[in-house]
Write a structure and sequence with these properties.
Layout: E1 3-12, H1 21-34, E2 38-40, E3 45-50, H2 51-67, E4 73-82, H3 89-93
Antiparallel strand pairs: 1-3, 1-4, 2-3
Helix pairs in contact: 1-2
InterPro entries: MTH1187/YkoF-like, Thiamine_BP, UPF0045_domain
Protein name: Thiamine-binding protein domain-containing protein
Family: Belongs to the UPF0045 family.
Amino acid sequence: MAQALLSIQILPKTNAGEEVYPYVDRAIEIIKQSGVPYRVGPLETTMEGDLDQLLDIVKQMNAAMFEMGSPSVLSQIKLSVDSKEGASMARLLQKYPDGK
């Protein structure tokens, strides 16, 4: 499968008064454990890799939210697939090495 970039904002519903941060931390930990290159942003996290692998990571993230007690999860995803050159965070960001 082609090299892809997948950005995800995961929004688990929590029980009354429960913070969402532990859920988001767990989702990011799943990405980290996968070994794919990733970059955490203020509103979403972007991963780079094989499309099938990235979609499997999304499935694992959603499953973890339910395991933690979330009754429902909204995952907003942006996907870029480039079968010719391969999608690349480095190439897209080379003009902005400092993020500015």
